[in-house]
Structure formats: structure tokens, C-alpha cells
Amino acid sequence: MIQPPAEQRVIRVSGLVKDFPNGTRALSGVDLDVSAGETVVLLGANGSGKSTLQKCLTKLISPTAGSVEVLGTEVTTAGKREITALRRDVGVVFQKINLVRELSVLTNVIHGSLGRARSPRNWFASTARSEQREQAMEALERVGLSAVAQRRAEQLSGGQQQRVAIARMLMQRPQIVLADEPVAALDPRAGRAVMDLLWEVTEEQGLTLICTLHQLELARAYGHRVVALRNGQVEMDTVMSQVADEQLEGLYTEEAEHEDYAAAH
Ligand SMILES: Nc1ncnc2c1ncn2[C@@H]1O[C@H](COP(=O)(O)OP(=O)(O)OP(=O)(O)O)[C@@H](O)[C@H]1O
């Protein structure tokens, strides 16, 4: 397990357990420390607990046991206000691209800064509006889409929409980015373009990235560190350069096959 020095740590997960009401144990004692600026690729078969782990980081899901500390906030015990403040610092990019389809690309990006506005209700009338517009245009330029700023979001391709979602996330000025299968719905070329962008912007801005991926070649290309889950437990936590292809593929074998594989290696 990789353990970054305490002063650089932005995420500390210890002994995390999540039991859903139907009896499913999704996480079974997960420990994970992540330091500022790290790029972590989260791997594991369907149902291994990746989404549940990501959701516990901002209390979208409350764990059953264990502790989660993110950017100095003790998430498990934090109240509503602290969690709202924390969520401003944590940007999210999902597989399902959730732009407001009938609004312009620019307005969608501007929405990214709403969480930072002093009074979101009066936000559209505020003088900050032109400044936000300028920042949103800069974010759109950064993702290569300033030319389509006035188009309705629904007129863009899936890959372009995901790039708009990244621009919107940047408007939030997060410190940590959680991406849950951000390219699962895209063709290989668009998927690579989106990953290139996500990788570049997080690196440029020194953000911490935790990204769930199912495509192993992308995981190799973009992950510095690989954390793999199996049945709600951490099975691998190491630097990507030290992992052989067979080890990555082994993460997706069935349990019985896995035991044979582990015994042979
Ligand atoms: N709300 C829920 N209620 C009951 N069980 C759930 C719930 N959400 C997830 N689970 C179960 O918890 C386990 C972990 O699910 P999770 O979505 O975290 O896995 P995952 O690794 O992200 O999978 P995938 O790669 O398919 O997205 C699975 O067995 C799943 O069926």
C-alpha cells in the first residue's frame, strides 16, 4: 500500500465498510491514502466497490463503519454545512454526461461556478456575471470548444459534451477531481481525447485525480498509481510502472480463477 507523507495527504480512508440495506457488503475494510497532485486510476470488476468508494468521499453515501478524511474534513461525522463546503472543492465527472441539454454550452459552463457564488439565488442579476462569463469562455477555450459556446448543449457530440462537463467542473475551481468511468459512453477516439484533456488540466492545475476506468490501455496511459478493488477490498495499490499486463488482466478474473492465478504467481 502506498502511504504518502501526512503533510501532503488530501484523502485518508481507513477501515471503510459499507453495507447496503439489502445486505450487500460493497466495501469491506478499505484503506487508502492519497496525496495532493496524485493521479490514481481505480480499477476492478463490475460490483467491486469503486463507485461506492468514490461516493463515500463526499458523503453521497454514508459508510457503515470506518473513517474518511478529505481535505481536512472528517467526512463521516461532518454536518451538512461542512459537506457542502467540501463538495465545492471536489469536482466530479460522471459517465452519464449531465449537462442541461436545452441551455447553451456557455450557460452550462457558467453553472459550474454557482456553488462559489455568495448568493446563488440572485446570481444571475449579480455584477459578477460578466466576470463569470469571461472565466467560462476561458474554460471553454481550454477544452477547445469556444467556437460552440452559444450552441445548445444537446447539439454537441458525446465527446464534446464531456469536454464541456470538464470545463464546467474547472469553473468550480476544485482541488480534487473524482471521475467515474468518464469515457465509458464514448468511442475510442473521443474517449482518448477526453482522457488527454482530463489528464492535462489536472496536471496543469496540480489537482488530485481519482479516475475509475475499465479500459486497461487507458489506465496504463494515464494512471500514475493504480488502486484495484476486488469484492470491496483493496487488492492492489502500487505505481503503474511496476504492474505487468497479466496482473492488470488478472484483476478481472473470476474468484476461483483468481485464486489459481494468485497461487501461480
Ligand atoms: N444502492 C445500492 N443498494 C444495494 N446494493 C448496492 C447499491 N449500490 C451498489 N450496490 C452493490 O454494491 C456493490 C458495489 O457496487 P459499486 O457500484 O460500488 O461497484 P463498481 O465497482 O463501481 O461497479 P461498476 O464497475 O459496475 O460500476 C455491488 O454488489 C452493487 O450491486
Automatic annotation (TrEMBL):
Residues 11-256 form the ABC transporter domain. PROSITE patterns: ABC_TRANSPORTER_1, ABC_TRANSPORTER_2. InterPro entries: AAA+_ATPase (IPR003593), ABC_transporter-like_ATP-bd (IPR003439), ABC_transporter-like_CS (IPR017871), ABC_transpr_PhnC (IPR012693), MetN_ABC_transporter-like (IPR050086), P-loop_NTPase (IPR027417). Gene3D superfamilies: P-loop containing nucleotide triphosphate hydrolases. GO terms for molecular function: ATP binding. Keywords: ATP-binding, Cell membrane, Membrane, Nucleotide-binding, Translocase, Transport. The keyword ATP-binding applies. SMART domains: AAA (SM00382). It holds the Pfam family ABC_tran. This is Phosphonate ABC transporter ATP-binding protein. It comes from Nesterenkonia rhizosphaerae. The gene is phnC_3.
